């Protein structure tokens, strides 16, 4: 047995204990010098216990900022409840809970406002993978090879913040918030940000190589990366909670296939960055394999 968690005074251990028993995690809650502590029976259950503890802590922090007196469930709280007023305090709480995902949403909204959803080519050129040049009402772009001379390596990532329609923007922000925030809470903000950069850069580079045009963008590649990670990780490490169901995975795969047809353009969605979607899905799945194997090895050594 080893110490896994020490409860705060306002935390009810019964809620976490019920969640642990539902996942068949053997444990004991003992009192030590007036403090309640959680001890695991089997060290192999450390990973799933850690995930449930994070969800439990998240629920307690949500409870402390609301008027809901019911005991929190050991699950992801609904931080987007329409009954919550978005005050400065509640926004600050969201930032503390999901700093990378929250910052991504804010940056994306600001970029879309600045670029007017891609209509302002002057500002759009600040974020495209290669600079845009407007001469005599013609639009030109520099080759990707010139990036080494200007050292503007940030352009490899910034296209993820570009969006070209309200539907495009809302769809991506919805899924990056729904899936991305859960992944950030499970693997931590630092690792999530590393994964975000890897998936975003890979998607942008391959999309540019495929089309040879800088006029693309969006969080879709990262969204598909999150979907791929969440789907594959449970096969690599069965102790992981399932974040998406089979129906949702089928939807994203079907939508990926539709992107290669003329249907999106006929619906007014324009040409889709299909390569970015596919590369995002593959890179997210590969990251899940790497992370899953490393986390299993770390659990065995603990």
Q: According to CATH, what is the topology of the largest domain?
A: Rhomboid-like fold
Mean pLDDT: 83
- Give the total of beta strands: 5
Helix content: 55-70%
Q: Sheet with the most strands?
A: 3 strands, antiparallel
Low-confidence stretches: 61-85
Q: What CATH architecture label of the largest domain applies?
A: Up-down Bundle
Order of the strands making up the biggest sheet: 1-3-2
Portion of residues in beta strands equals: 5-15%
- Structural class by SSE content: mainly alpha
- Tell me the name of the CATH homologous superfamily of the largest domain: Rhomboid-like
* Number of helical regions: 12
Rg from alpha-carbon coordinates: 22 Å
Q: What's the N-to-C terminus distance?
A: 11 Å
CATH class descriptor of the largest domain: Mainly Alpha
Shape: elongated
Number of domains: 2
Which features does this protein show?
2 domains, mainly alpha, single chain, Rhomboid-like fold, elongated, 5 strands, 302 residues, 3-stranded antiparallel beta sheet
Structure, described:
By secondary structure, this protein is mainly alpha-helical. The protein folds into two domains: 1-97, no CATH class; 99-301, Rhomboid-like fold, CATH 1.20.1540.10. It contains twelve helices and five strands. The chain has helices at residues 13-22, 46-64, 88-97, 99-115, 121-124, 147-150, 166-187, 189-211, 220-236, 246-258, 263-266, 274-301; strands at residues 2-6, 27-32, 35-40, 132-135, 138-141. A three-stranded antiparallel sheet has the order 1-3-2, covered by helices on one side. A hairpin with a 2-residue loop joins strand 2 (27-32) and strand 3. The chain is elongated. The termini are close together. 31% of the residues are buried. The model is unreliable at 61-85 (pLDDT under 50).
């Amino acid at each position: 047995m080893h110490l896994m968690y020490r409860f705060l005074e306002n935390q009810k251990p019964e809620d976490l204990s019920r969640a642990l028993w539902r996942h068949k995690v053997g444990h004991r809650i003992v009192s030590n010098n007036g403090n309640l502590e959680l001890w695991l029976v089997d060290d192999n259950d450390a990973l799933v216990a850690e995930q449930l503890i994070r969800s439990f802590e998240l629920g307690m922090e949500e409870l402390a900022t609301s008027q809901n007196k019911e005991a929190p469930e050991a699950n992801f709280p609904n931080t987007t409840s329409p009954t919550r007023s978005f005050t400065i305090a509640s926004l600050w709480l969201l930032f503390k809970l999901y700093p990378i995902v929250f910052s991504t949403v804010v940056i994306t909204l600001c970029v879309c406002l600045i670029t007017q959803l891609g209509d302002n080519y002057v500002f759009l050129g600040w974020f495209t993978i290669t600079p845009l040049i407007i001469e005599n009402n013609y639009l030109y772009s520099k080759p990707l090879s010139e990036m080494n001379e200007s050292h503007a390596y940030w352009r490899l990532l910034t296209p993820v913040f570009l969006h070209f329609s309200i539907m495009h923007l809302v769809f991506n922000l919805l899924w990056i918030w729904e899936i991305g925030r859960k992944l950030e809470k499970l693997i931590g903000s630092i690792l999530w940000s590393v994964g975000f950069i890897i998936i975003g850069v890979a998607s942008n580079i391959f999309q540019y190589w495929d089309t040879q045009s800088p006029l693309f963008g969006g969080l879709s590649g990262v969204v598909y990366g999150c979907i791929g990670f969440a789907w594959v990780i449970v096969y690599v490490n069965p102790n992981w909670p399932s974040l998406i169901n089979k129906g949702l995975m089928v939807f994203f795969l079907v939508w990926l296939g539709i992107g290669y047809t003329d249907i999106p353009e006929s619906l007014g969605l324009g040409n889709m960055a299909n390569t970015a979607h596919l590369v995002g899905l593959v890179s997210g799945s590969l990251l899940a394999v790497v992370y899953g194997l490393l986390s299993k090895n770390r659990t065995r050594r603990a």
